[in-house]
Write a structure and sequence with these properties.
- The complex is a heterodimer of chains A (292) and B (278).
- Chain A has 292 residues and is of the alpha/beta class.
- Helix content of chain A is 49%, strand content 13%.
- Chain A has an 8-stranded mixed sheet with strand order 3-2-4-1-5-6-7-8, sandwiched between helices.
- The longest helix of chain A has 17 residues, at 21-37.
- Chain B is elongated and about 65 Å long.
- The chains are: A alpha/beta (292), B alpha/beta (278).
- The structure holds guanosine-5'-triphosphate (2 copies) and magnesium ion (MG) (2 copies).
Chain lengths: 292, 278
């Protein structure tokens, strides 16, 4: 664990109640390694380590802690604060329906998460409408329809031959007419560098007047998480992030990277393939996971 | 890269940043740079450009061993098993691979071995149509090993050249799911001499260090014979294959560079390394 590695590092130094600059330099080397191994972005790590250095040098080591534990405490607090922030609940529109759009790279878990969100709202006594706006991936519409059937929740679809912008428009009209509380739009996976598809997404968001634009990110994403998050945020203006596949053993450093570069709160995490596997995001838990 | 024009600490730091940013990982990057430093001293290298050549050559050596050719020789049917974690591109890669093999004049049969995920069978069916391949499927919820068995049986009786078995995505830490792929491998082993002739582990190029855990645990469950690195058309460099190569000692056979049926390329280590530093 990081604490053990730091204890080792501190063994060679004579910490005397205050963290000296030398103590801290030794410690941040270990912290940096831990964060990079956890897939936190190189530049995000650099910036984060800078903050730790500032906070740690000259800090008094609490009576109940070893210098190593004191550093871990500083690092954990700093990271939890960075990833926490405003309470990450979903926006509720003044006038229904609340429109939520799920966006992200191919295979991140958008379609599955859309169904999970629908189930979440239904369990709160709301009436969500799922929207099959991925007309590109083979059987994407069927995938969402199949999930809707399992949940006994409606899925709005106009087939695969209609433009996604028109599908979204039709869905919102239907939702307004029939009094749905949420419109959950599943979109096709796409690369942040595909200008045409990013423009399509922007037009969908504008047409739908989305209240929430959530970036779905695979928790095992590596260094690329920063480029992806920045691009989606810049183009669309994200309101939140959902981190998926955290039921595996990935450290999930992408969480810190994405939060650091977009400032967007992580609102939920995916903890499995089952539709009940959607949980709220707890920054302290994510922090201890990343630090290993 | 390298503004100062000399081989100093700042230069090595720049190299480190490039490698780590490409998902090569800290441990592998450290080892690579240590070897490069040694060689630079030993050969008294003076220009930064030469150092870059050395590191590229070293990476290529790690990646280039072994053939990236598919095991297509021998008595048909050749049986290929495709595995990997959720969403990496297994089903799409199988569609592309089927098309690739059809272009080579092979007959192909696909096994709809993902009997779990919603519309997984329909998705593979669409790819079989596009590629001109046959398909064997049961219903959602059926036993995946039974589908694999059925497909191999059908391939034998229909004199098919290649059977490609699609499997459900699964995180490598799920013991029961890893036991299931081991079972699929055993089932086809019994049915065809030497099967599966290829076990392709698909890795998503955007994946970070978790790829090493994926390689290790899939490698324990099945005899992985090759890697496919998908989604290289994005901005991720896929540097994880270097460490994975070290873990499994199997070559990267293909890369996925898009979502269309033709977006599959035979792996070229020289081009890959060039793009890593590109
Ligand atoms: N283990 C696990 N698997 C997940 C989770 N979320 C999604 N998946 C799986 O990840 C795979 C991809 O999920 P999809 O919902 O199809 O992903 P997508 O983003 O819609 O994919 P595209 O539409 O192709 O971009 C499927 O096998 C899902 O079952 C999760 O939290 N945990
Ligand atoms: N850009 C790009 N997208 C790809 C590539 N390969 C696959 N995809 C996309 O990635 C997404 C997931 O592909 P699938 O083939 O469903 O992945 P899978 O591994 O079979 O997923 P599960 O069966 O759910 O585990 C789809 O949107 C594909 O179009 C690639 O090389 N480049
Ligand atoms: Mg989808
Ligand atoms: Mg699949």
């Amino acid at each position: 664990s990081l604490t053990e590695k730091l204890q080792q590092a501190f063994k060679k130094l004579r910490g005397k109640g205050i963290l000296s600059e030398k103590d801290v330099s030794e410690a941040v080397r270990e912290v940096r390694l831990a964060l990079l191994e956890a897939d936190v972005n190189y530049k995000v790590v650099k910036e984060f380590i800078g903050k730790i250095r500032e906070r740690a040098v000259g800090q008094e080591v609490m009576k109940s802690l070893t210098p190593a534990q004191q550093v871990v405490k500083i690092v954990s607090e700093e990271m939890t604060e960075l990833m926490g922030g405003a309470k990450s609940s979903l926006v509720v529109a003044d006038k229904p329906p609340t429109v939520i759009m799920l966006v992200g790279l191919q295979g991140a878990g958008k379609t599955t998460t859309a169904a999970k969100l629908a189930r979440y709202f239904r369990n709160l006594g709301r009436r969500p409408l799922l929207v099959a706006a991925d007309v590109y991936r083979p059987a994407a519409v069927q995938q969402l329809q199949s999930l809707g059937e399992k949940l006994k929740l409606p899925v709005f679809s106009m087939g695969e031959k209609v433009e996604p912008v028109n599908i979204v428009q039709g869905a919102v009209k239907r939702a307004q007419k029939e009094g749905y509380d949420q419109v959950i739009v599943d979109t096709a996976g796409r690369l942040h560098i595909n200008e045409q598809l990013m423009e399509e997404l922007k037009r969908m968001k504008e047409t739908a007047e989305a209240h929430e634009t959530l970036l779905v990110v695979d928790a095992m994403t590596g260094q690329d998480a920063v480029k992806v998050a920045e691009a989606f945020h810049e183009k669309l203006g994200l309101t939140g992030v959902i981190l998926t596949k955290l039921d595996g053993d990935t450290r999930g450093g992408a969480a810190l990277s994405v939060k650091a570069v977009t400032g967007c709160p992580i609102k939920f995490i995916g903890m499995g393939e089952k539709l009940e596997a959607l949980e709220p995001f707890y920054p302290e838990r994510m922090t201890s996971r990343i630090l290993g | 890269i390298n503004r100062s024009g000399k081989i100093d600490e700042e230069f090595y730091e720049e190299l480190e940043e490039i490698l780590i940013s490409a998902d090569v990982g800290v441990k592998t990057t450290t080892e690579l740079l240590e070897n490069v430093r040694e060689e630079v001293l030993k050969k008294r290298v003076k220009e930064p450009a030469k150092v870059l050549d050395i590191i590229k050559k070293n990476i290529q050596e790690i990646l280039g061993e072994g053939t990236s050719a598919l095991n297509l020789e021998g008595v048909p049917p050749r049986v290929f098993l495709v595995v990997g974690v959720n969403g990496v591109g297994k089903t799409t890669t199988i569609g592309k691979l089927a098309y690739f093999l059809k272009q080579k004049g092979k007959t192909v049969l696909l096994a709809a071995g993902d009997t779990f995920r919603a519309a997984a069978i329909e998705q593979l069916e669409e790819w079989s149509r596009r590629a001109g391949a046959q398909i064997i499927k049961h219903q959602e919820g059926a036993d995946a090993a039974a589908v694999a068995f059925d497909a191999v049986r059908a391939a034998k009786s229909r004199m098919i050249d290649v059977v490609i078995i699609d499997t459900a995505g699964r995180l490598q830490t799920k013991k029961n799911l890893m036991a299931e792929v081991s079972k699929i491998q055993r089932v086809v082993e019994k049915e065809v001499q030497g099967a599966p002739h290829e076990v392709l582990l698909i890795l998503d190029a955007t994946t970070g260090q978790n790829a090493v855990s994926q390689a290790r645990l899939f490698g324990e469950a099945v005899n992985v014979t090759g890697l496919v690195l998908s989604k290289l058309d994005g901005t991720a460099k896929g540097g994880i294959v270097i460490a994975v190569r070290g873990e499994l000692n199997v070559p990267v056979k293909f890369i996925g560079i898009g979502e269309q049926i033709g977006d599959l390329r035979v792996f070229n280590s020289e081009e890959f390394v060039k793009a890593l530093f590109g």
